Amino acid sequence: VIFLTLFSYKEAHSSIDIDAEPGLGGFYRTEQWLPFKVILHNDGQSIQGTLSTVFSGMKYEIPVDVPANSQKKFFLYLYPTKHEREIKISLHSNKSLILEDVSKIEELDQSISFVGILRGSSLSQSYPFSEEGEHPIRVINFTPEDLPEEWQGYDALDIMIVDNLNPELLSSAQKNAFKQWLLSGGKLLLYGHYPHPLGRGFYGDLLPVSIFKTSTPDYSNKKDSPTVTSELLLNTNTIKKDRKIVQHVDGVPAIVKAGYGMGEIIYSTIPYYSPLLSDLVKNDTIRRELFGHNKRLFLRRKLHITESLSENISAVDDKLLLSWEYIFYFTVIY
Predict the structure, then answer these.
(1) pTM to 2 decimals?
(2) What is the mean predicted confidence (pLDDT) over 152-178?
(3) Residue 214 main-chain phi, psi, to 5 deg
């Protein structure tokens, strides 16, 4: 029996592998949530166990059940309260260590603007805010598969740019996370055109303007006025109430912003990578409107009880039991 048990653990260890990846490019800020993605690849028999890590003095545990010849993805949302250099994740089964992995992370200074970009097209284009300026910028690129499904996964970002992305590529949970992040003080820059309609559904709820069909104007020659290929530029009848026009082009509103909870949303008919926008942001006022920090005004308080994000969560002393659908609140945003 002992021989068979030892053989079983050895077989489990050799047939399961782990891909662990800190979110946000491995950068974090203290007192702001850090997403941590773990994928377990199981080429052998089914395994039940626990993923765990000790991070900033708190122990996180996730119960896992990975069927034979399958893989599963898990997200942990970690809360750094002090300087950290790495995340060590372990998988245990029946109180025995199956495997472990270490991921390096790097602290990002609060003076650096942290910008995420989610692109649907023009993947090789650069952006005007990435040029050298008064304030340093850290840019990370996302794919829809990278995106966390809880707003805490975007907590450390100052700005998120969604550039002509088909919203059908985002899950309902990811869309909801975007909205919760905005409500908490995030800043979202949107650009899009036909064939991804902006005037309804997910984008329609966020846009500071009403748009039913758009197409791409030609902004390739930055010295000339944009040539509109069909109905695109906004008019005053399409702008929703209590919105601010940031910039006109040829007397027509081209960039509009609006508040969303404690956050803000900016929609541009001009692609964020275009030469015309590069010229516009040479104006400090326009640059600050688009790419400046959105000051996130919120209060923190420690909780003496646990509060669940979706259902329930158990905690014993300093041990938290988490799964991909649960999260423990260390802070409350008002």
Answers:
(1) 0.74
(2) 88
(3) -135, 160
